[in-house]
Design goal:
- The protein is α/β, with parallel strands linked by helices and 322 residues long.
- It is built from 6 helices and 19 strands.
- Helices cover 21% and strands 27% of the residues.
- Strands 1, 2, 5, 6, 7, 8 and 19 form a 7-stranded mixed sheet that branches. A 5-stranded parallel sheet has the order 10-17-11-12-13, covered by helices on one side.
- α5 links the parallel β12 and β13.
- The N terminus and C terminus are likely disordered.
- The protein binds NADP nicotinamide-adenine-dinucleotide phosphate.
- The site of NADP nicotinamide-adenine-dinucleotide phosphate has 19 residues, from α4.
Amino acid sequence: MVSRNSRAEKIYDMIVLGAGPAGLTAAIYGGRALMSTLVIEPKMVGGEITLTDRLDNYPGFPEGIGGFEFGLLLEKQASRFGAEMVSIDVQAIEPLGEVKKVITSTGVYSGRTLVIATGTTPRTLGVPGEEAFSGRGISFCATCDAPFFRQKRAAVIGGGDAAVEEALYLSRFAEKVLLIHRRDTLRAVSSLRGKLMENPKVSFVGNTVVKEFKGDQKLETIILQKVTDNSIEEVNVDGAFLYIGRLPSSGFVEGVEKDSQGYIITNEEMETSLPGIFAAGDIRRKLLRQVVTAASDGAVAATMALRYIENPASPVTGKSGS
Ligand code: NAP
């Protein structure tokens, strides 16, 4: 049971929910502006980027940088400017009023402003065997598990940037990688598509959907169906990696305007529909979900949070719709 008063004494200037690039950049800007800042993150500090082998398109790293290393650097920088960090699960927020409450599994935290930067989680297919073999052959992180696939056969499901990038990474280890996509055209950017087509270890299996994952103790085969003629094929694999898009981690956020998929709607100042509540990074409704845009959102959110604290009646607060 939640103890409602256990953390009630301290009121932070800014509480940041999520320690990915958006949340940690908000913390860097908040701390540097001398706002008392708390970052709450239940999982890995650094966020999803820490699971990426290489961050290749962030300005200032001409040779790229490892995702894990990048996450550690962000954490170090936020700590240098005084941001506190706790590792706990957020259950709900109470976003109304001058002091906003964050209800967690170990108590309630209070802040004058909140920055919601909780990002997204992987989408699942919802087919038989998917749940049973998750962690037993089905994985959502090629970067974590690829080294187990030396000289083995792996399937990657999806057709976006993530699926193609991870299929390419897996091909460094695996003997064969099947990239299974429901259409005959990949959604991924042309540079990644080009690399994929040139890679002799990766075979593109288009117009194909996964009907079932099968095995005994671990995943052994996938049942595939061609969408063009409904023909069924059972394919042997040692593992399957799902990259079919992401869902916003916004279920705990109530009272703030979201779109039909659950992404939080903000304006360009990262303001949500409620005063003093900001959103940053992949959790926002936006066009380009990249580390660089997440960092930019975080910087704007913290700057606007400071402005809100200095002048809560500012006419720009509480507007939404980007
Ligand atoms: P995404 O771009 O939304 O692609 C999801 C893919 O999964 C699509 O090809 C989609 O098929 C397929 N899919 C969705 N639901 C499916 C289902 N039920 N069954 C089978 N297939 C399904 O997601 P993402 O690749 O995870 O990328 C997310 C965001 O991160 C994007 O903005 C992307 O640009 C960015 N990202 C960037 C990089 C990079 O810049 N290096 C790397 C990774 C991710 P359809 O194509 O038919 O819709």
